[in-house]
Amino acid sequence: MDEVISIDSLYNDEHVPEELYVLVQNNLVDQLTDRLDSLTHSIEYLTAVSWHGEEKLSLLMIAALNGYEEIVRILFAHCQPQYQIELKGRVAVSEGNLIGGMTALQCACYRAHFTLAKTLIDIGGADVNNDNDDLIGYPLLIQASKNNRLDIVRFLIENGYSDINKTQSNDQDRCTALIWAAFKGYTTMIEYLLEKGADINYSCKSSKVLAPTPITFAVLRGNVNAVRLLCDADADTSAKFTDGRTLLMVAADNKYFDVIEFLLNRSVCTIDELELSACSLVTVSSSIKQLHQALELLALAIKYRVSTQTLKICIQPILAYDYHQECQSVDELDAIKDDRDRMWIEIALIRERILLPRHDSSFMRSLQDRGDLLVSRGEFEKCLQLWIHAFYLYQNMEMSTYLHPFVWLFCKMITENHQISIDEFLKACYLVFESSQIKSDDETIGNALCLVIIATKITKSEDRVLIIQWISKLCRLNLVTQQGKTLLHLCVDNSLNEALNWRRDDILPHIRFPNKSALQLLLTCAHHWLDLDAAERIDGSTALHLACQQSNEPTIIKCLVNAGAHIDCVNLYGETPIDCTKNESMITFLASKLFPHRLKCLCARLIADKRLKIHHHDQLTFQLNKFIVLHDHRRAEYNC
After folding, report:
1. pLDDT in tens, 485-530
2. What b-and-e string marks burial along 530-568, b requiring 16 or more CB atoms within 10 Å of the CB?
3. Are residues 112 and 17 part of one domain?
4. Whether residues 111 and 205 fall in one domain
5. Are residues 4 and 129 in the same domain?
6. How far is CA 167 from CA 42, 66, 137, 175, 475, in A?
């Protein structure tokens, strides 16, 4: 056949004469040959795809479906194979199973006519990578693996028509035959593919897993026998899913208990990991159903511990967890299954036991969330105990600790008119002295001052001694911010209000600056430990300077002056507190306190003015120099 046929005729819908269909269907070789020779339009009929009941077929497809190799050769003789071989139709590959877009090669393979299939490939040039309408992007090898057609897979691989690893789906996932076999759980197919050298750790492009290998898909579908085969072949079991879950966690989420047990027995995972997977199902807002799912996994863990005599070392009962301990038996677990609070404690105990030694702080967020829930229920004391415990956990893991949750909690209690026990309050206050908190950073000092302010609101006369003891100890730390501001500076500094705006709402009504009450409490409780004339670093201002610059409350200025703050100290600009205020009454008040002049101030000013030298070997040189500098009006000149 030398006649050239237009490619447009490949998919024509011209009706094929019924007699041709009957001749091919019944394998009437001689009659078909004679009839095709007599037809003037035989080529059009051979390149047509027409309906026959529910099926839409070409004559070549009919021959392929029936395995008529001689008929196929006759059809090739009357029309070049290239114009027939890739025609696509709709074929019933089995009863009730109609597939669209099937080629003659696919028809032959699905009906297991492999000798004919070989002819279609070798003589007709059939493309084994051509997909069909129902499996777009799936070459024949991938189709066969997906449909568990081991016979087709054998034919393609053993005749060298398809490469077991290079043949991949043409879609974005780029799956291999082994990926599909693992996903479907076709164990015989998996065994064969592995035997023929399929890449057991091939990673396709699926977006569901970070390392989408055969074993991850086998676990995803809960195919334990497939998982077993792949593990026996040394599959990499460290792959994780996109959301960070491990093989065990996926099996746990889907309650694939046989897969979980296998992973445990094969040491792919540990019993601790199983318990953590169960914990991951529980949050403060978990439903009863989710709690019960977690319990099933925890029960499995207990049974496995018993069977392997693997003991767990439980943490000691503590107040933060209502003195509960972990359940040691399935019966104990069953007894708490409908108690949300007790279930949360069980999960918290397990996480702390496992993760704390690893310094893994991932479980700490749940403690914060639990505290918020307790506050919403009005259980403030329980929240306080839980967050104090969380503070020590962070410290144990050598991580940063924070006091602002306690500041918010106490402010919330004040808002709700909930009585604050002085003993419980001081438990949080004394955390300031823990090793993770004794540092001069702005947040630590700010939170400490906030606790002082709260103390002014809750302290009763009978509690005063305890508060004095705490504040005295606090002031002895001599905490100073990065800008050199002391607690006294902060008490009178209204710029702190800006930082408070970022805090939780319940704080704002109770903590504002300048804060006269906190200043008075500090001056009363720890006068001997406070440096009233400490100068901050930027402007060299004392607390009295700041008070005169910012405060609209004369009582704040009077508190500092009456406590002994120097009125004649100068900042880096040579300004005294009087120079910093525009309030006429305050100017009059401060001026009245300058007389009579104190002798030591006069001496300091004289030494500064005359630039007299002080002997460096004198043990009081540092303090003397500091006092003298505070009275030196020319500080600004040499500070530049």
Report:
1. 999 999 999 888 887 766 677 888 899 999 999 999 999 988 888 9
2. bebbbbbeebbbbbbbbbbbbbeeeebbbbbbebebbbb
3. yes
4. no
5. yes
6. 37, 28, 11, 9, 75
**Residues 578, 548 contacting (CB under 8 angstroms):** yes
Q: What is the pLDDT of residues 558-607, one digit of tens each?
A: 999 999 898 888 888 888 888 888 888 888 888 887 765 566 666 666 66
The Cα 266–Cα 479 span in angstroms is 56
Lowest mean pLDDT among 281-290, 377-386, 397-406, 470-479: 281-290
Contact 456, 521 (CB under 8 A): yes
The answer for residues whose C-beta is within 8 angstroms of residue 594's C-beta and 6 or more apart is 567, 568
Q: Do 274 and 258 share a domain, yes or no? A: no
Q: Kindly report the average pLDDT of the chain as a whole number.
A: 87
HEC assignment per residue over 466-524: HHHHHHHHHHHCCCCCCCCCCHHHHHCCCCHHHHHCCCCHHHCCCCCCCCHHHHHHHHH
Q: What are the backbone dihedrals phi and psi of residue 468, each rounded to the nearest 5 degrees, phi first? A: -60, -40
Domain extent for 8: 1-134
Alpha carbon 178 to its chain's center: 31
Q: For residues 236 and 215, is the Cβ–Cβ distance under 8 A?
A: yes
Considering 506, 530, 554, which residue would you say is the last residue of a domain?
Answer: 530
SS3 state at 38: helix
Q: Are residues 521 and 561 in the same domain?
A: no
Q: Exposure pattern of 205-234 as b/e (b: 16+ CB <10 Å)? A: ebeebebbbbbbbbbbbbbbebbbbbbebe
Q: Tell me whether residue 146 is in a domain.
A: no
DSSP 162: S
DSSP-based three-state secondary structure for 57: strand
15 and 98 co-located in one domain: yes
Beta-strand ranges (E) seen in 20-70 are: 50-52, 55-57
- If DSSP codes are grouped into helix, strand and coil, which group holds residue 242? coil
Question: Pick from 398, 427, 446: which residue ends a domain?
Answer: 398
CA–CA separation, 525 and 281 (whole Å): 50
Q: For residue 436, how far is the Cα from the chain centroid?
A: 26
Tokens 């839980």 -> residue: 386
**268 touches 294 (CB < 8 A):** no
Assess whether the previous peptide bond of 405 is cis (omega < 30° from 0).
no
**What is the residue type of 289?**
K
Integer Cα distance of 274 and 280 in angstroms: 10
Q: Are strands 89-94 and 97-102 parallel, antiparallel or unpaired?
A: antiparallel
**Bridge partners, 97 (sequence order):** 94
Contact 335, 347 (CB under 8 A): no
Q: Is 98 helix (H, G, I), strand (E, B) or coil?
A: strand
Q: Order of strands, edge to edge, in the sheet holding 50-52?
A: 50-52, 55-57, 89-94, 97-102
583 with 478, same domain: the answer is no
Q: Based on the domain organization, do 491 and 572 belong to the same domain?
A: no
Peptide bond into 514 cis (omega under 30): yes
Distance between CA atoms of residues 331 and 327, nearest Å: 9
